[in-house]
Amino acid sequence: MKIQLLSCLFFLTGVNISAQFDASLESNNQYYVDDDKIKLSDAESEHRFRSNSYLNMTYKWNKFTVGAQLESYEPEALLNYYPDFKGVNIGTYYVNFNNDKGIDITLGHFYEQFGSGLALRTWEDRQLGIANSLVGGRIKYTAPDNLYSIKALYGKQRIGFDLSDGAIAGVDAEFQLATAFHSDKFTSNIGFSYVNKYEKHDNLYPQAPENVSIYGTRLNNEYKDFYLNIEYLYKTKDVIRMASETDPANVFDGNALNLLFGFTKKGFGFNGNFRRLENFSFYSQRDMVSNQYNQAFLNYLPALTKQFDYSLANIYVYQAQPQLTFFPQKKAGEIGSQFDIYYQFPKGSAIGGKNGLNFSLNLSNWYGLKGVYRVYEDYNTAKTSFLKLGEKYYSDINIDLRKKVSNSWNSALVYIYQDYNIDRIQETSGKVYANTLVFDNTFKMKNNNSLKVELQHQWANASYKNWAAGLLEYHFMKNWSVFVNDLYNYGNDEKEEQMHYYTGGLVFRKNSTRVQASYGRQRGGLLCVGGVCRWVPENTGFTLNVNTTF
C-alpha cells in the first residue's frame, strides 16, 4: 500500500490539472571524529558518518490531499536516536478529504491533539526523534455555525517504522457555550475527551489490563482581558515503571489536573499555571513504558518551566515527572506551578527612557506528591495527598530586561536562578544551586548587516560547577552568516573535565532554503524543545544541515 501511494503521488505531480504539489527536504548529516577529550565507543565508531533525511510531499486536488514522507537513516541514524530508525523507508502516508460542510476524513498516518494534549497528542519533532503518528482512520465534523465539533479516531501508533501492539480509539467533542447563548461579550467552550488503548495479554505481564482508558473534561473561558482554563482527567489502571523496565506485578490508576489563568492588557500581562500529575504516563505499548527514546507515548506532558534560549541555562533543565515508581525511588508524580509577569515601561518614563524597557519575571516550583509508599514481597501500595507538597524537585527564578538602546543597538540582560534536585530528576544523587547571567546584544550595521554578541556565566555549587560561554554571529551580504561559540567548564572539580565545547560555522539562506555547515564539540546532556527532551551524547565532528521547500 505504501509503495502504491508513493507511486500515485509521483504520477499526479506530472498531471496538469487544477492542483497543487508541495515538497520539502530536510537533511541532517554529521561526521564524528575523535579528539584529545572525546572519543566514540567501538560500536559507535563503526559508522562515523551518519545522516537523518526527510523528504515530505503533498498533492492537493479539489477536496483531496495525498501525502507521504520518505525517510532515510543511512548508513546509520545520528547518535542516540531510536535504534529502529534504520535504512530508507516511507515514514508516513495518508489520504485526506475535506469539504466546506465541516467534514474532514483522513486514512493513513495522522497527527492529533485532544484539548491541551494531556489525554492525547501525537506530533513530529525531528530534533527529539519524535514521530509518533497514529495509523488508521480519523473523522472530524464541525457544525456550520461552529456551535460544536466532534472527532473520532482509531489506529495503531508508529514506533520507528513499525506499529504498536496496542490499538488506540478516541473521541473528542467541544461545545461553544458563548455561541449557544448568542453572546459576544465572552468566549467559553466545554470539551470532553475519551482515549482507549487495547493491548492483548501476554505472559510477561499477566497483571496488566487489556484496556487502559483516559476520561477528560475541560472548560475554557475568556472575558475581556481575563482568561481561565481548567482541565481534569482520570486514567484507569495501567502498568508502571520499575527502574529501567516495566513492572510486571503492579498496576495503578492515575489522574491529572491543569489550571491556567491570566490577564493581559497593553503593556502588562500575567499568566499562572498550576498542574498536578499522578501516575499519568500513557503509552501505546506496555513494554515501552521505560524506553528512553521518546517512543510510544500517547499524551503530552511537557515541563512547565521557562524554555531557555541560552546554552548555560539548559544545563540543569527540568523534565516533567508524571510517573509512579517504587524502585529505585518511591515517587508518584509531580505538583507545582509557573507564573509569568510582563511589563513594558513606556517611552519617556524615568525607567523606560527614550525607547522604553521590556521587563519579564518568571517563577516556577515543582515538587513530588506527598504520600505513603509501602513495598511488599508481591505487591506495592501508594496513597498520596491531593494538594500537599512532597520533596522539592526543581525551582527557578528568571528576570529578563530587554531594551532598544539606540536605532542600531538592542540589548538584553538576563538573570536565572535554578534549584535542581539531581537525585529526583535524574535518579542519581546530589542537588545543584546555579546562578546564570546573560548579556545579549545585537548591533545593526550598514547594508542590513548585523552582529550578535552574547556573553554568559554560570556559578554552581556542585556537579559541573562554573561555566563561561560566548557567542559571536555576523550576518552579511543579506544571505550569509558566520558564527563561533564556546562553552568552557573551567570550574569542574575534575581537571581533565575542564573542557571547551566550541563550534564554528557558516550559514546560507535564500528564499525557503537554508544550509549550515559547522565543526565543533557537542556538550552531552538534554536537548529540549517545548519542554520535551532527548539525551544527546558528547561528540565532536563536522555537521551539514540542509532545509528547503519546492
Mean pLDDT: 93
Give the total of beta strands. Answer: 30
Strand composition percent? over 45%
Low-confidence spans? none
Q: Notable features of this structure?
A:
two-stranded antiparallel sheet; mainly beta; globular; 550 residues
Written description of the protein model:
- With 550 residues, the protein is mainly beta.
- Helices cover 4% and strands 61% of the residues.
- It has three helices and 30 strands.
- The strands form four sheets. The chain has a 24-stranded antiparallel β-barrel.
- A hairpin with a 5-residue loop joins strand 22 and strand 23 (450-460).
- It is globular and about 60 Å long.
Record the SSE blueprint.
Layout: H1 2-13, E1 19-33, E2 49-61, E3 64-73, E4 87-98, E5 103-110, E6 113-114, E7 120-121, E8 124-125, E9 130-131, E10 134-142, E11 148-159, E12 162-176, H2 177-180, E13 186-198, E14 211-223, E15 226-242, E16 245-265, E17 268-278, E18 333-345, E19 357-375, E20 380-406, E21 409-421, H3 422-425, E22 431-444, E23 450-460, E24 467-476, E25 480-488, E26 500-510, E27 513-522, E28 525-529, E29 532-536, E30 539-549
Antiparallel strand pairs: 1-2, 1-30, 2-3, 3-4, 4-5, 5-10, 6-7, 8-9, 10-11, 11-12, 12-13, 13-14, 14-15, 15-16, 16-17, 17-18, 18-19, 19-20, 20-21, 21-22, 22-23, 23-24, 24-25, 25-26, 26-27, 27-30, 28-29
